[in-house]
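Narrative of activities, Objective 1.

The group set out to show that a structural description can be obtained from nothing but a protein's sequence at a throughput compatible with the screening campaign. Below is one input-output pair from the validation batch, recorded exactly as produced.
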Amino acid sequence: MSDPALVPGPQHQIPALLMTLGELIRQARQRALRAVDTIQVQTCWELGRHIVEFEQGGVARAAYGKRLLPELAKALTAEFGKGFDASNLRYMRLFYHAFPKCDALRHELSWTHYRTLLRVDSETARTWYMNEAAAQNWSSRALERQIGTLYYERLLASRDRAAVEQEATRMTEANANPREFVRDPVLLEFLGVPGAGVLLESELEQALMGQLEAFLLELGKGFAFVARQQRISTESRDFYVDLVFYNYLLKCFVIFDLKRGELTHQDIGQMDMYVRMYDDLKRGPDDNPTVGIILCTHKDASVVRYSVLHGHEQLFASKYKLILPSEEELRAELDRERARLQLAQQRDNDN
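Output recorded for this entry:
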C-alpha cells in the first residue's frame, strides 16, 4: 500500500493542469485568429473580383472610371466601417489582379500579409515570398522585412545561399513576436471593432494621448478633435497618425505623433512625410497647410518638434505660433502626465 505522504497532493498537480489549460487556450485563440484571417482574405478576394468584373462589363461601366471606388467606399463605409474605404477597395482590386486564382492562395497568411505582397512587382518573386512566408510561418512584419532587404533577389544572386538563409532566419527570430489579435489594425477595421485606434496603443501612450487631447480642447484656441490612430495610405503602405485635430481659427489640420525614446532623424522624416501626405489626401481647397507636431518622451526629458510644409515656415512663424501651444506648454503637459502615471504605477506596486 502506498504511503499517503509520498502520493502527490492536488496542489502539486495544479502546475501541470495549468500548463495543459494554457496550451488549450493558446491553440484555440490561434485557430480563431486563423479562421478570421482566412475569411477576411477570401472576402477581400471576392470583393476585388466583383469590382474588376464590374469595371470590365462594357464601355459604360469603364467610363465610370475614378468615380467607382469613392462611391462604393462611401456606401460601404457608412454601413460597415472604415475597413472598406477607397484605399482598402483599391488594395482588393489589386489583390484580385495579382492573385487571379483563389485556389492558389495560401490560407496560412493574413490579409496584412497579402497587402505587403502587393508591393512586389515580379509575379515570380511575389509567389515565392507568399509560399516562403507560409512555410516559415513569417509574421507580416517579418515578411515586410524580408521584402525590404531583397531576400529573394539576394538568394538568386548569391553564391553562398546558406549564408543568406542563415542571416534571414536570424533576423526573423530576433524580431519574432506572434501577431496579437487586437493589434492588427487592418483586421480590426475589417471586423468593425469600435475604438480600434485606442486598442492599438500601449497603456502609457493611451494615457498621454488622452490627456493631451483634453489639454488641447481645454485651451479654447479653435481645436476640434478629428481622430485617433487615423490611417493614411500610399499605394503600398499604411501609416497611423496618433492624434488629428482641425483648428478652425487657423483653418488647418494639426497632426500629432508620439515617439518613445530618443528622437531620431527617421522620426522627423516620417512626420514630414505625414504632413505632405495629409495635405495631398485630406486638405481642402480653402485649408491652410497642415502642421505636424512630434512629441517625444523618454526617461530624462520630453522633446517637441513642429513640422510644416517647406515654403510655409513664414506662415508658421507669423500666424500659427499665435494659436498653437508652445513647445514649453506641450513639454510641461507631457511631463506632468508622465509623472502622474509613474506615481500611480509606483503606488500600485507598493500595494
